[in-house]
Specification:
The complex is a heterodimer of chains A (about 110) and B (about 110). With about 110 residues, chain A is mainly β. In chain A, strands 2, 4, 5, 6, 9, 10 and 11 form a seven-stranded mixed β-sheet that branches. In chain A, strand 9 and strand 10 form a beta hairpin. The radius of gyration of chain A is 13 Å and the shape is globular. Helix content of chain B is about 0%, strand content about 55%. In chain B, the strands form three sheets. In chain B, strands 2, 5, 6, 10, 11 and 12 form a six-stranded mixed β-sheet that branches. A four-stranded antiparallel β-sheet of chain B has the order 3-9-8-7, with no helix packed on it. Chain B is built from no helices and twelve strands. The termini of chain B are far apart. In chain B, a hairpin with a 5-residue loop joins strand 10 and strand 11.
């Protein structure tokens, strides 16, 4: 089945460690996105990529980094510079600039101890 | 930048009744799209309904319908014949072509027996 796979689903890390969240899609979508979800805050955009080898910062990019070496993959690294990394992270993709609808993965819950 | 406001953090409704969730947005674009997403306890984001701004007719999907008031920049979601499975967070979102979705902070809906 086509879809978006995020891994791991749950991740625990010590403070000061970098961690990478995986996002893979087999929908042949051009654009991919990372959102962060905190209680009462809705979804906030971290980074997005509309084509391979190109990406742009979203509203809360500080302390995060991404790469887009393949169309199918858009990993997110949460660096030690991110002051409050504990959150739920959602990856999404979109076919193009048509309807604007996003398709989401199941999310990754990161807890920093 | 587009902003989306959901003024009802929590709502409840009895099974089989009708409930309306409010959403207002702010955009300077002429061509944009509006969405309602549902996030059940599993945290999987599910598209409920979509509205193209250039279409005057309100979108409907089975028990879900919207009241789109373009001049007032209002986009409310009506759920008819509420079911226990409708219990979830509901997010309103807006998008202009070629960019990401902007989300509201969400409304937590509880459907009671």
């Amino acid at each position: 089945d086509g879809g978006i796979t995020q891994s791991p689903k749950y991740l625990f890390r010590k403070e000061g460690q970098n961690v990478t969240l995986s996002c893979e899609q087999n929908l042949n979508h051009d654009a991919m996105y990372w959102y962060r979800q905190d209680p009462g805050q809705g979804l906030r955009l971290i980074y997005y990529s509309q084509i391979v080898n190109d990406f742009q910062k979203g509203d809360i990019a500080e302390g995060y980094s991404v790469s887009r070496e393949k169309k199918e993959s858009f990993p997110l690294t949460v660096t030690s510079a991110q002051k409050n990394p504990t959150a739920f992270y959602l990856c999404a993709s979109r076919a193009g600039a048509g309807t604007g609808e996003l398709f989401f993965g199941e999310g990754s819950r990161l807890t920093v101890l | 930048a587009q902003t989306v406001t959901q003024s009802q953090p929590e709502m409840s409704v009895q099974e089989a009744e009708t409930v309306t969730l409010s959403c207002t947005y702010d955009t300077s674009e002429n061509n944009y799209y509006l969405f309602w997403y549902k996030q059940p306890p599993s945290r999987q984001m599910i598209l409920v309904i979509r509205q193209e701004a250039y279409k005057q007719q309100n979108a409907t999907e089975n028990r879900f319908s919207v009241n789109f008031q373009k001049a007032a920049k209002s986009f409310s979601l009506k759920i008819s014949d509420s079911q226990l499975g409708d219990t979830a967070m509901y997010f309103c979102a807006s998008s202009n072509s070629g960019y990401a979705l902007n989300f509201g902070k969400g409304t937590s809906l509880l459907v009671t027996p």
